[in-house]
Task: structure prediction
Amino acid sequence: LVQGADGVGGPVLEGALQLLFVPGDGDYLCGPHDGSNLRHVDADAAGGAEAAEEGDAGEDVHDALLELAGEAPRVAPGYGSTVLPDRLDLYAWSARLRGEDLRYDKRSASVTNFVKAETFENELWWYPYGYLDGEFEIEVTYACEDRLAGSTFRIGVHPGNQGMTQSLQGRIEGTGGKFLTRRLPGSLKITPADQHLSFALPEDDRSAGVRLRKITLVRKGPQGD
Result:
């Protein structure tokens, strides 16, 4: 709404508002979104802004202010900033490639070469930045030549850079080189305190040539707004 500074005087415009900036002098037009009843506001007027009906510069409305109706934003249920999809894909391209040997293949949108290393383990790390809160089942999408199958892989939850509080494990299966999705048994409880999630081959690197495209978090139960 647009009203006088004292909260009483001045016109009131209801509905969606638009601001149209006037280049050169810092002034602008404000009014309903449909373009009717636009008002000219002089941003440099002494003693406060002046507003007048467009086409009638003689009508003054002193100290005109642009205000929003209410301070709290109105968000439709299910669209809050903390509400995430019930299925959340964490793609390999969005992860930190931790280790010197990992390679990203743009063509297949996947990461490979999870070989054993003497220093930093070749792992993928995803950072949820405090937005995950709930219990999730895990799906893994990868491709693996049949001759490379067999290694154990692990999805871990880390409250810090090193320690891991919980994990789920599975075994790399041969897919004939095609990308397939597998759901792991069990679930992970992730809280805003958990700093990152990881994917790794913790035991051997027989399946180092697996091509990981993404992991998917599938929420169990409802979430709040």
